[in-house]
Amino acid sequence: MPTCKACGDDVDELVSVKVANKSKKVCEDCADRLREEGDIAEASEAVVQGMMDFKGRR
Q1: What is the distance in angstroms between the CA of the first residue and the CA of the last residue of the chain?
Q2: Measuring CA to CA, which residue among 12, 25, 18, 6 is closest to residue 42?
Q3: What pairs with residue 57 in β-bridges?
């Protein structure tokens, strides 16, 4: 049985998710959580860049 790299639980199926340009094989619940965290991080970075009038890219 495969084991999730994030929570350590035994699961039926693992999903590959890119986090910080690295692929991680995690369970579906952890994959959803990681995607949400990534979306929130992008949004907050965009707000900070907007406040600082940053027009470039990372």
Answers
A1: 40
A2: 18
A3: none
The closest of 1, 6, 24 to 15, measured between CA atoms, is 24
pLDDT tens sequence across 48-57: 988 998 877 6
Burial label, 26 (beta-carbon count in 10 A; 0-12, 13-18, 19+): buried
Amino acid at 17: V
The model's pTM = 0.77
Nearest to 20 by CA among 35, 32, 7: 35
Strands 22-26 and 15-19: antiparallel
The distance between the two most distant Cα atoms of the chain, rounded to a whole number of Å, is: 50
